[in-house]
Specification:
The protein has 231 residues and is an alpha+beta fold. The chain has one domain (25-213). The protein contains four helices and twelve strands, in the order βββββαβαββββββαα. The strands form three sheets. Strands 8, 9, 10, 11 and 12 form a five-stranded antiparallel β-sheet that branches. The longest helix is centred in the middle third of the chain and has 11 residues, at 94-104. Keywords: Iron, Metal-binding, Oxidoreductase. Belongs to the carotenoid oxygenase family. GO terms for molecular function: carotenoid dioxygenase activity; metal ion binding.
């Protein structure tokens, strides 16, 4: 919060770096008693993980995959406000890591199921790795992604990730013609860029992403019905 708000952190307060990490956590509550005790609370991975999303069809349901963004440049504790940029999209098989965590019982709060760094994950050649990373080209940074399922998909991860990407090499010259691109990435393999669509202007970092289908747009109320009051 201090970094995002560009506010100096309180002096004299000592915290361990583990407590300042932004990770994908798993919580399980015991709803059979009145206290709602937490029975499981540990991170699925040790890497920095921001703005998690799941397919709309899995919202508030048993989603197996979670998508988000991260950085290969530094650990979260080393990041400054200037460096808080996403150069990696991450796909986490949360279902597999939760199953593993319940068998291994990591330490509560500070424990991690997968303790690898993001560089170790990026270099992994395991086709069944529960964490897959799409790394942006040098100097390119993304934003919050949206998952779009393939029509008729049988697998939960059969679809695409959509995200805005900006190439900072454009900053080397002063120009009003800077632009972002919409990248469409194969969510199944987390490697293939299916398409790149140039946006007329630059999209600032930090914008959230949402996907609206053609049927969503056609079902909107007409502008006249929402912009005018009663006569």
């Amino acid at each position: 919060m201090y970094l995002t708000g560009d506010v100096p952190s309180p002096t004299g307060r000592k915290t361990r770096s583990e407590e300042e990490q932004c990770r994908l956590y798993y919580y399980q509550f015991n709803l059979s008693d009145q206290c709602n005790n937490i029975t499981h609370e540990w991170a699925l991975s040790a890497i920095w993980f921001e703005l998690p999303v799941v397919p709309k069809s899995k919202s508030m349901r048993n989603a197996r995959f979670v998508y988000g963004y991260s950085t290969a440049q530094a650990s979260f504790g080393d990041l400054t406000l200037q460096a808080l940029k996403a150069d990696c999209l991450v796909k986490v098989n949360a279902g597999a890591l939760i199953e593993k965590g319940k068998k291994e019982s990591p330490v509560r709060v500070m424990g991690c199921v997968d303790k690898r760094s993001i560089s170790e994950i990026i270099t992994s050649a395991d086709p069944n790795d529960p964490i897959k990373v799409f790394r942006m080209p040098p100097g390119c940074y993304g934003a919050e992604c949206s998952f779009v399922s393939r029509e008729g998909a049988l697998d939960e991860d059969d679809g695409w990730l959509l995200t805005f990407v900006f190439d900072e090499s454009q900053l080397q010259k002063v120009s009003r013609e800077q632009f972002s691109e919409l990248w469409i990435i194969n969510a199944k393999d987390m490697q293939s860029v299916v398409a790149r669509v140039q946006i007329p202007h630059r999209v600032p970092y930090g914008f959230h992403g949402s996907w609206f289908s053609e049927s969503d747009l056609r079902s909107q109320r007409a502008l006249d019905s929402t912009s005018r009051g009663k006569d």
